Prior knowledge:
Structural class: mainly beta
Number of strands: 9
Shape: globular
Largest sheet: 6 strands, mixed
Radius of gyration: 16 Å
Helix content: under 10%
Distance between the termini: 24 Å
Number of helices: 1
Amino acid sequence: MNGEIARPVMPVATPDTRPFWDGCAESKLLLQRCTACGRVRHPPSPICAHCLSDAHGWFPASGRGSVYTFVVVHEERRGWEKLVPYVLAVVELDEGVRMVTNLVNVAPNAVAIGMPVEVTFAASNDATRLPLFQPATLRAPR
Length: 142
C-alpha cells in the first residue's frame, strides 16, 4: 500500500519498541526473540515473560499470518471519517505471536477468521510507517 493513512493518534516509540518502529520505517516487520529461551514475543518487552531473561534480539518476521479475530467498525470518529468502515483485527503471525492491526485492501464483508494475510506498510500523516495486513496471495486458509 503506497497511500497515506490519516490517523488521529500515532504510536510513540520507546526504548523497547524503537527497533520495531525502525524496521517498519524500512518496510520490515521485526520481532523480538528471547536469546535465553528462544521465545518470540510481541509486543516487545525488556524481560521475557517465560524465563525472565533480559537477553533478547530482533529478527525479520515472515510477514505472514492469519486472521485470529476481527470486528468491522462503522462508527465515525473525528479524523477517521474517510476510513469508515474499517476492519480492526488480531492477526496470528506464522511466528506464533498475535498482533492488533487493521486489514486493508479487502471488503469488510469478505474478511473471515483463518483468512491468510500478509503485511504491508502505509505511511501515516506523521511519516510513521504502520504495519497493516492484507489478504495473502497464493496461500490456503489454516
